[in-house]
């Protein structure tokens, strides 16, 4: 997924053969609208989804589109008296089998530039499924956070940096730390804008892929961020493919680190590369090629990817992956659990009340304008 748009879909998981082709199609359409009053998709992690109620700033829900279980998250505490905090993200803690043990909901309460705009402070509110309560903290960053583009993995958010190209700002929301850690990308400080690059995830790691077009081939390099204290990168692949043009890395297979997908700006087509065999296949719509487990929304690719590539910025691609093993959604103490039907009914009722209030207010001011009140 690119933001909330679905770019490329792979299906056919043996554990979930009876599910629809698109994992995102499990999320009801009304969750993915942008109009006021509807439920909006906000984030996902570990197979759980975070949605917000457009009619009620204080309300949000965490649940599973597969099991149809949802937890109603209580409003933030009195430490947010103005109600200005914004629902931002979701992090999860998993066991060795990928089963969700707990989750945290993140609301952004404040952002302030410090030290003459060289550094910044991010104020957040955190709701824990383990305790069922909200806590707050301020996280200090040595740089300014970028436009909130991020990668979310294993409880950690990785943000872009506004002032220093080639670095990430990382924070583990399960830690007690109040500091962002600086993660230098593999090509820092030689951050050549001619490179086409993407940040994504695969095999439980943050992945950084980069291409450079040469006269007779496209050179692809892929690193993974090691889960160690110094945030070092390991170079996994350096491969030359006999394809030329503006091919940009777009995504990687969520489980297979030897499968990468390149987007051609010139031909507007997706290329699947097998790094072990060092061969490639041009993919098209599932209806007209042999890859029946794949669907590509080319219009979304052209609209979003080409825009970022033209601005010579890194592509941030988030993957919504249904876990191999699906258990019940972790239930916080004293939390209300509802199903999808009840959630949609509640959202519709809230929207109806809001629209009625708007109509009554418009009627009042219309009467005032015409001197009848």
UniProtKB/TrEMBL annotation:
It comes from the Eukaryota. InterPro entries: At3g26010-like, Beta-prop_At3g26010-like. Residues 1-331 form the F-box protein At3g26010-like beta-propeller domain. Pfam families: b-prop_At3g26010-like. This is F-box protein At3g26010-like beta-propeller domain-containing protein.
